[in-house]
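Dear colleague,

Thank you for sharing your sequence with our group. We've completed the structure prediction you requested, and as agreed, I am returning the results in plain text so they can be pasted directly into your records. Please verify that the sequence below matches your submission; if there's any discrepancy, let me know and we will rerun it promptly.
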Amino acid sequence: MDVLSKIPIVRYGVLGTHLGRAGLETQAPPPDGLTAFVDPAGLGFIQHGPRGAGGASGFIYKHIRINRAASFPDGVKEAITEECHAKYHAYGDGEASEQHHVIHTVGPRLGFGQHSFEEATAALAPAYQNVMLEFLAFVAAAAARADGKPVTLRLLPISGGIFAGEYNSPELIAPLSVAALRAGLELLPPAQRASLLADGVAIELCVFMGNELHEFRKAMAQARGEPEPEPEPEPEPESEPESEEEEKAAADAENGALAAAPAASAAGAEAEAPPAEEVVPAAAEAAEAKEAKEAKEGADDAQEDAAAPADAPADAEAAAEENDAKRPRLEE
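Please find the predicted structure tokens below.
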């Protein structure tokens, strides 16, 4: 049995929410103590600290309450020193069932005119391979407390959004992600692939953006030799805001509630959006409201930490990475 055949495409990002025509919706509970989830990190942030990270990573760091930490744990920094590296770490105090189980990875920057489809697949495959290796370590640690429940990985498209370069569109990133995932799985030794096929082990490929969902399901069906699925209609917004100001206030209220929710039920936002013209109008407006709110929070953090050393990476590549990560693509 092919591991790919047991990986569903799910209608939510790694923190459990979905952004579609009706706005930001909760589609699944946040990850629990038996669920590991992937952080599409920037290398500069891994090495210099999580403060200032945007997009998916920024909301993940808020969810696991490290968004104001001065640095990542030493084990994470030592393990991730270049693209495609990955490292599992449990965040939070208390029992493992109460912790946040995160697999950080840094996807390659695919750029423009630099990689054919086959080359891009080969460049991405080791990132998926290393994420699976870290997930297997989590499975081994969690097995004793699973008590018959599945140990789950919430995976997302690695090097999506701005890192995808010329592949940054739903019809290109979806087949590339599925091909790279399959290639990464094939890099694993047979015994490790068999472990991923074991009962009680589950992997979900999480798709946060509504306008990408059908392309991912189509790409997965093609990879499995299955018929192409019918598109699922996105629910329409229940009502339109009366004004731009009311719409922004509604988005801010929703986002504030997410940020204030307890860790057990918090939801965040997932990063690296497709170009603005590909995002449905409601999603684009929500993204603008989110970006404005994050900018204000960033200014507040900067004022609080004025006496501390600068947290942003000093080198040009890391600085560019920081700017890229702050593009307005939400996730949970």
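Summary note from our side: The chain is about 40% helix and 10% strand.

Kind regards,
the structure core
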